[in-house]
Amino acid sequence: MELDVRLVRSFVAVADERSFTRAADRLHVAQPWLSVQIRKLEDQLGFRLFERNRNQAVTASSKAEAFLPFAREYLVAVERVTDRAQRIRDEAAVTLRLGAPDFSVEMPIRSAILRTFAARHARFDIEVVNAWTVELLRRLRDGEIDVAFTLGPHVDPHSEAMVIKRYRLSLLVERERIAGIAQPVPLAALAGREVAIFRRNVNPAFHDSIAPILEAAGIIVDHLQEAGNLALVQQALRTRVPVLVGDWQAESTTFPDPLVVAALDEPALSFNLNLVRRIGDRTPQIAALWETALQMIEN
User: Fold this and answer.
1) CA 220/CA 196 separation, integer angstroms
2) Are 110 and 164 in contact (CB under 8 A)?
3) 96 class by beta-carbon count within 10 Å (0-12 exposed, 13-18 middle, 19+ buried)
4) By three-state DSSP, how is residue 288 classified?
5) Do 217 and 80 lie in a common domain?
């Protein structure tokens, strides 16, 4: 025999209150519904539970009195099982699917945010998915990832962004090609030369925020054949064309000789590192990462 916990709870309430009316109020149910529940339990048990006298007073039968202690233990056991299941669920690891461009792993602030988040929220397991910003925003819209680090202006109407940090663009170039040029390098010194940047399709908004600045200075905009640090190094060495990189890479990335990272004397050549989530998404793991990032920015 399997007893429905709701039926047992109804029985205990009536036994405690000695009144169907008061028990119904206690359980926040209608009295006729409660009476039906008691009859169902009586059918399962095979004996009568309550009697009513002329004054509508409720009296438990002798068998009900004998059953009552076990019914209470049953409810306590059910509550303990439910509580334990809840604790196990809450303690279980929850995966946070985080999208990010692969080279952003070298950004100190990104690493600091994830380290702090992991230390504070051990039950959230971070899975990093690497892709360019356009692809990351698509995956975020489609629910394939939960949150993303993106680069450049945020123009996606389906998501909201927090600016984590603003970076300047620098030049990855052969040392001899900037010999004798003032540091930081003025754009005018590069007029008539080629400078390589990423292709527009990987991040149109970011591309369109920097290409016109270069072209206005008389620079010939070339495009990288392949994204990623290794690819841009190989292209810089093979073609001898300078490449735009982030200023953090001057300290975080080791480039082979004769390549160096040279600062550019143009504040407009800068961009945002954003943390992006779907509009209105407040799931616990996303909210926790968002709060961690916000606190680190404020501090």
Assistant:
1) 8
2) yes
3) buried
4) helix
5) no
Q: Which residue has the tokens 């809840």?
A: 86
Residue pair 141/158 in contact by the 8 Å Cβ criterion: yes
Domain CATH number, residue 72: 1.10.10.10
- Cα angle: 258, vertex 259, 260; to 5 degrees: 120
Does residue 65 sit within a domain? yes
The token pair that represents 89 in the structure block: 């669920």
Structure tokens at 9: 């709870």
Name residues whose C-beta falls within 8 Å of residue 248's C-beta, 6 or more positions apart in sequence. Answer: 106, 107, 108, 167
Structure tokens at 142: 């489609």
Q: How far is CA 231 from the centre of its chain?
A: 30
**For the chain, how many structural domains are there in total?**
2
Q: Are residues 146 and 229 in the same domain?
A: yes
Q: Residue 291 falls within a domain, yes or no?
A: no
Of 2 and 216, the structure prediction assigns the larger pLDDT to 216
Q: Note whether residue 288 is domain-resident.
A: no
Burial (Cβ within 10 Å: 0-12, 13-18, ≥19) of residue 172: buried
Q: What is the C-alpha to C-alpha distance for residues 73 and 93, in angstroms, rounded to an integer?
A: 32
Quick check: helix, strand or coil at residue 34? helix
Q: Are 154 and 276 in contact (CB under 8 A)?
A: yes
Nearest to 139 by CA among 131, 194, 244: 131
Res. 190: pLDDT tops 80: yes
Rounded (10°) CA dihedral 241, 247, 249, 251 = 130
Structure tokens at 201: 């399709």
Question: Mean pLDDT throughout 201-212?
Answer: 94
| pTM exceeds 0.70 | no
139 & 206 share domain: yes
Q: Does 299 map to a domain?
A: no
State which residues form the domain around 84. 5-89
Contact residues for 114 (Cβ-Cβ < 8 A; gap 6+):
98, 126
Quick check: helix, strand or coil at residue 3? Answer: coil
